[in-house]
Amino acid sequence: MSDMVSALNGARFEGFAEITETGLCGMVQIRADLASAGLAQALGGLGLSVPGRRAILSAGDLELGWMSPDELMLFCPRDRAAAITQQLAQALGGEHAMVLDVSDARVRFSIRGEKADQVLMKLCPVDLPTLPQGEIRRTRAAQTAVAFWRVDGGLDLIAFRSVAGYVMGLLKHSARPGAELF
Amino acid sequence: MLRLTCPHCGVTAEETELTPGGEAHLRRAGPDATDAEFESYLFARKNPKGVVFERWRHAHGCGKWFIAARHSVSWQVFGTYPAQTTEPPADLIETIRAAIPTWEGWQ
Lengths: 182, 107
Description:
Chain A: It comes from Phaeovulum vinaykumarii. The complex is a heterodimer. Chain A has helices spanning 37-44, 81-91, 116-121, 164-174, and strands at 12-14, 18-21, 26-31, 56-59, 62-68, 71-76, 98-101, 106-112, 136-141, 144-151, 154-160.
């Protein structure tokens, strides 16, 4: 079988913050009525619950983020994505719902360091100091759609794979040594 | 800069995060309409110097449509509400009337 590679194959950059394309990352998109009991039960099978508005919660190596009033995004290890997709699709069989493995259509970056916020302050129309831990914020970075949230030591960010090179370029440029805001 | 609060995800988004969708609460001229009525539905817009109801899509956020009521001169925003409705909510109409007693109404 051919080797799977992520969009930028783990590219790294060290500026006033450390930018890393995190490599293979599983992402499962769930479209459903978020208030339905069936969804809560299906997620319960993975040790998760339905996150509140704009919340992202984690359980073990899984993370589940609220993307819109009818959409969730589940982050998992790449090698478990197919099995989790199948498990959720089966559990939601009787519901008006859709579960899709979008691992190959997305890219994930980590931004680490004390000044990680400043990398995104320059790119996104978001008031970073008021972004709490446990909130996933969908917005734009320069011209492309992204979502990011706080993790230990910085921020994690996802974008579409087709714009991975562009987003990496943005983050690198924003994080150039000496380019910090304060 | 225009900042609107998306009623779906609660984010107060700045204008560049949103996509405009034109005048809200248009009613399609039905199958029995005359040519003049249909032309009016397609092309004639109120474009008032005053309170406007506009459709917006939170394109770089949750992706949902909502409607914003604002003043086209002062840019005062009176409120936003989900687009799954055919008329503005009553409490919003009250808010606008309180702010602009001479307002002629949304229709």
